[in-house]
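Side project, low priority. Logging it here so it doesn't get lost.
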Amino acid sequence: MSEKKKESVLAGFKAFLMRGNVVDLAVAVVIGAAFTNIVNSVVKGIISPLVGAIGTKSLDGYTSCLKGPCGIDAKGDAIGVNILWGSVLNAALTFLITAAVVYFLMVLPMAKYLARMEQRRRAKEGVQETMEITELVVLKEIRDELVAQRQGGGSGRPGSGY
């Protein structure tokens, strides 16, 4: 590979890495990994015990035997062909619980916060727009008055001196 081609490949790679969305993605992955621990702690420490109080503590033990004889030998290994539908159901419930925790504890409050900020911003822009329009009207009136004074010799008001 020529030196010039090597430089262009490295320059292209550097440009790719320094592009904003790649850096943002890297930050998001790191924050997401840290946030995963928080969500897992909430699910394992609060949500799962509440679900366990209503039903069973673990769904992992629920299986169906596809080809017998099924069971567990002395070493703890499965005998036969078991369908571990309890594990799949447990994973699906864990996903739903995790998604609910993320939505109700993070996404929904953040959306409400951002909506309030947008509403405040719009209200502030509306006030500024009103002020600008009012100032514009006053300036137009002053301009019209000055034009009238130049053309007609005054506004006709007493004490104006024109």
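Brief comment: The first helix runs from residue 3 to 18.
Revisit when time allows.
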